[in-house]
Amino acid sequence: MLRLASVVVLCMCSATMAVLPEGSGTFDPAKAKNAAEAMAAFDVAEGLTVDLYAAEPLLQNPVAIDVDEAGRVFVVESDRFGHGVSDDRGERYWLNDDLAANTIEDRLAYYKKWAATGKHHPMTWYTDHDDRVRLLLDENHDGKADRSTVFAGPFNQPLDGLASGVLAIDGEVYLTNIPSLYRLRDTDHDHIADKADVLSTGYGVRTSFLGHDLHGLTLGPDGKLYFTVGDRGYNVPLPDGSRLYDHLDVGRGAVFRCNRDGSGLEVVYTGLRNPQELAFDDFGNLFTGDNNSDAGDKARLVYCVEGGDAGWMMGYQYMESPYLRGPWHEEKIWHLRNDDQPAWALPPVAHIGNGPCGFMHYPGTGLDPKYNGHFFLGDYRGQPASSKVWSFTVKPDGASFTAENIDTLIKGVAVTDVTMGYDGRVYLSDWTGGWSITTRGRVYTLADKKHIDDEAAKQVRRLFKEGFAQRPVDELVKLLGHVDRRVRQRAQFALANQHAAAELLAVATDHAAPQLARVHAVWGYGQIADADASKLYDLLADDDAQIVVQVTRVLGERGQAPARLETNIEHHPEAHVRMLSAIALRHIITADHARGLRDLPMLINVLRDNNDADLYLRHGLIMAMASLGDDEALLAHASDESPAVRMGVLLTLRRHHNARIARFLDDKDEKIVTETARAIYDLNLTDAMPALAAMIDRLPADNNPLARRVINANLRLGGEPNARAVAQYIARGKSNQAMQLEAVAVLGCWSQPEARDRVHGSYFAIAERDPAIVKRAVAGHLTPMLAAAHGPVQTDLVKLADQLSVNIGDEALARWVADYKQPVDVRVESLRQLAKHKAAGIGSLIDSVINDKSPLVRHAAREALLAVDAPVGVKALIEASQHASQRERQLAYEALAHAPGSVVDDYLAEQLGVMAAGKLDTAVELELVEAARQRSAQKVQSALKQVEPLMAQYTFALEGGDASRGSEVFAGHTIAQCMRCHRIDGKGGEAGPDLSHVASRVDRAYLLESIITPNAKIAQGFDTVVITTKKDNQTIAGTLKSEDDHHVTIAQADGKNVTIDKSDIASRTAAAVSAMPPMGGILKSHELRDVIAYLASRK
Q1: What CATH code would you report for 38-442?
Q2: CA dihedral of residues 425, 426, 431, 434 (deg, nearest 10)
Q3: How far apart are CA 707 and CA 692, in angstroms?
Q4: Does domain 963-1097 fall into CATH 2.30.30.100?
Q5: Environment class of residue 847 by beta-carbon count within 10 Å: exposed (0-12), middle (13-18) or buried (19+)?
């Protein structure tokens, strides 16, 4: 049999499915009991009840679920999470390869490259575990699954996974599994797919992060498939030989749509980080929940308007402090609308949740009518206690939306997906907690016993059991007005399939018909290819704005519309209508250039009247103008008096990658100048790069986004005039410290530029250059640069001069060393350089500062002494390691690591013995051991073996850390991602406890144990426990609120606290483990110690 996982094609094909014989399962009452205990801790919205539908061994590691018309539950299981699918956080050595990858073939190539080196897993690691689609069956119709089979799999090839999305409809099952979109069919009805079509492939160009996969499958109101990919990106070959990819960077998340046979693939929205799922509201507006980057930013609800861009690039993820996450933070892209945001990106609708995952819109039956119009959004936070499903609505806000009525549907379940069954129940998949695979997995249902058997809900069950295709037209027309959107949609599709254009038009134009019936009638009419679109024209003037919206969408897709469309753009009272009308016009004037030219003045006038008040309306206007394809006509408005018009023209030309936008660098509006710089630099418009670089002579003092790009434009060009210009920029001293430091750093990497761009983190390789170029530039401007520099800038300039062998002059260096008013770092670096070349008078200078008031200067003097007179320097360092301040003792051991002589070996071996005896100051243990590890003497290595077991206990981290550095690790460590789950001072996630004042509650030993072995110390309020009492055999579940020697207090799901006498506890179990992975293998030793110091300072 042909294995599905081996099918990788560029067009649709078929294959026979492989069956896993071990993949079936049956109901296990013992596992159900464990799930029931977990359910006791759930906090469920009033009126809803929760029931277990399935538990292990029927399923495990569920990522996504869907329910088909027959009530069968399809589950995507991912056993390859961390066991066959990689993550850049654990493979930092290949990061540049990943950022450089442009196709899935590139990704496979570097997998093989690193496997061959032995640094990465062998290639068999990718195939040892499987993802699959599992089918859960309720054969006795009691509302619980009693059997499961593997419907499709195994998926286990190196490019595969994670399998992350499933949609079951009309006997077909669609699966998103990087690198491909599949259509699966069970033609012989044995619950096992035997046909598999690859509808498109090329998704997952990058490795990025686990979970940033291909997912989000849903069916749109136009009958098309919609789905998403995270910032693993895409580069998809199309049937005509072209390729679909993001021209800014292939590593960007996006929303796609295509016909159900895979044809007509296109991008709807881009610039997302990790949009797990999609949901349409009742009026065809598409939304997604996009995850945050674990650096204090917030997850976002995004309105996915056609052609929109949320602003994320994969490279942002790896940009560290002080430029943490790059433009994402500095330019406030993830924030709600603000004046600092780039104009090319659209702001989010709202900040909801922390880990958006499953997403759905309530269809209208099964629950209380109060949920009509509500979205349900899963929020996975790593452990059950804080994970939840949100409910909320959206309301118009100009041409976009804002969220309101935000509430919790259920809390306490580690939800990964949420969907609505045709039986009136909400289905939830439960990973059960953590960030790794287990052998667990559950599906729960939420039901409203009061409304599940409402007449409309019973109709839904009957209608979907019987189907729609065979129903007569008149019945289908009536069903267009059903309260449940799924019924309305299937009636719409059935009428379209029967080419019932006249009947659909009659409903659409019937002002007495229910609004939603008319909406679906318009959509259905639009699905009929040969239906006369002109018969919808009059509806562009309908009194109901929602009807106008839907007709506008349909006519836009058809590429035809009357002049009323332009009237609506200009005068309709609803901003949403105006925006969508402009987007529809885009499709029309693409093929009608003359009409576009006639419309351009009108579009310009609307831009002027809008005056950038509504960014989404501006977006629609730009979409229309961009489709004209006549940049000369646009440039005629480049000098318009209105900044809003000029901005609109600029953003339109940006979409064309037109380098003539360089003219806007001379605009009188600084926002327009900055936006121009973004376009030229970020899109690498090479013809405009010299003009951008030349701006360095006239930069404003505090516009970092502009200055950063101008400085780095000079780096890209790389000529000697560019190097001189950067040096002169520093010498003028008129910019802020951050940009001065950036300019110095750029000169430092001039001859060997970094592979990752300094502005946005994407891969941008620049060939090595003649170092003489930058050396001449620095040498020619060193004096004025140093005169203008202060603090860290001065320090970095001194280091730069040393790096380039540019002579500052011993007199100046010595003067700085002796001047206690100079920054300490400047004095230290100056002394180091003087000692390096044994400057005249260095001995006297050392003597003058060996007892300086600064411990760092005193240590620098000892290191200088080591350089000029090693025996004396060794003696001074040994003395300091015994009697100086804590920081000096640490630095002394660090210096001894490289000091010559057997005296050093004798001393280090002796100190290791002191440490083994438990008599060494904990604060210097790490420095001592690291120094010893760098010595080759046998006596040192033997002594080292005595203390390595102590190092494995991590007690060295209890003292000696630097709280300031620890703060940076906490906020910005790419792998540890502390802020993903923890909050400090209002910033960060909520999966774990708030650590703002953690030191007032616990000591350093507790902190260390919590970090190294998280399961040993789960914070109160995050430890889910189940207690059975002796007295009445009562089971009490909830989160641990408090505990002492005699009592345990449990916070139950209803908010009530129950205190239990410990003598009455018959059994006590933890229903969950910590979501935090052990950090001993993630944080470096110094990072761990610094984090302990930082947390210990939070009182």
Answers
A1: 2.120.10.30
A2: -140
A3: 10
A4: yes
A5: exposed
Confirm if 445 and 430 have CB atoms less than 8 A apart: no
Task: Name the pLDDT band for 978 (thresholds 50, 70, 90).
Answer: confident
**Range(s) within the chain of domains with CATH label 2.120.10.30:** 38-442
CB–CB of 893/881 below 8 Å?
A: yes
User: CB-based burial of residue 402 (10 Å sphere; 0-12 exposed, 13-18 middle, 19+ buried)?
Assistant: middle
CA distance linking residue 478 with residue 482, whole number of Å: 7
Residue intervals of the chain classified under CATH 1.20.970 are: 687-808
User: Measured between alpha carbons, how far is residue 670 from residues 648, 664, 689 in Å?
Assistant: 15, 10, 18
Phi/psi of residue 677, nearest 5 degrees: -60, -40
Q: Please check whether residue 99 is in contact with residue 251, taking contact to mean a CB–CB distance below 8 angstroms.
A: yes
Give the confidence band of 19 by pLDDT, cuts at 50, 70, 90.
very low
Spell out the SS3 assignment of 159-215. CCCCEEEEEEECCEEEEEECCEEEEEECCCCCCCCCEEEEEEECECCCCCCCCCCEE
For 880-925, the three-class secondary structure string (H helix, E strand, C coil) is HHHHCCHHHHHHHHHHHCCCCCHHHHHHHHHHHHHHHCCCCCHHHH
* pLDDT at site 597: 95
The whole-model pTM stands at 0.89
Alpha-carbon span 321 to 724, nearest angstrom = 27
pLDDT of residue 1057: 78
Kindly report, residue by residue over 1056-1085, the tens digit of the pLDDT: 678 888 777 766 655 445 555 666 667 888
What is the mean pLDDT of the segment spanning 22-36? 59
Q: Return the closest-CA partner of residue 273 out of 258, 290, 298.
A: 290
What pLDDT digit, counting tens, does each position of 319-358 carry? 999 999 999 999 999 999 999 999 999 999 999 999 999 9
Fold of 687-808: 1.20.970
- Sheet of strand 147-155, all strands in order from the earlier edge strand to the far edge: 25-26, 147-155, 131-137, 73-78, 62-67
Residue found by looking up tokens 């400057």 in the block: 839
Q: Count CB-CB contacts under 10 A for residue 350.
A: 22
How many angstroms separate the CA atoms of 1012 and 1088, rounded? 9
Tokens of 641: 């008096």
Query: What is the spatial distance between Cα 479 and Cα 573, in angstroms, rounded to a whole number?
Result: 32
Q: Tell me phi and psi for residue 280, to 5 degrees.
A: -95, 145
Phi, psi of 806 (to 5 degrees): -100, 125
Tokens of 493: 């599709």
CA proximity to 19, closest of 182, 138, 132: 132
pLDDT of residue 589: 93
| pLDDT of 529 higher than 70 | yes
3-state secondary structure of 290: strand
pLDDT beyond 70 at 861: yes
d(CA 200, CA 438) in angstroms, rounded, equals 31
Task: Please state, as a whole number, how many other Cβ atoms lie within 10 Å of the Cβ of residue 89.
Answer: 19
**The pLDDT value given to residue 535:** 98
User: Where do the CATH 2.30.30.100 domains begin and end in the chain?
Assistant: 963-1097
Residue 483 is encoded by which pair of tokens? 């309260």
Residue 511 structure tokens: 């002002």
Would you state the pLDDT for residue 261? 98
User: What is the chain's length?
Assistant: 1099
Residue 986: exposed, middle, or buried by beta-carbon count in 10 A (0-12, 13-18, 19+)? exposed
Residue 81: phi, psi to the nearest 5?
-65, 105
Q: How far is the C-alpha of 196 from the C-alpha of 180, rounded, in Å? A: 11
Is 50 exceeded by the pLDDT of residue 8?
no
**Average pLDDT, whole number, for the chain?**
92
Q: Helices (DSSP H) in 55-100: which residue ranges? A: 95-100
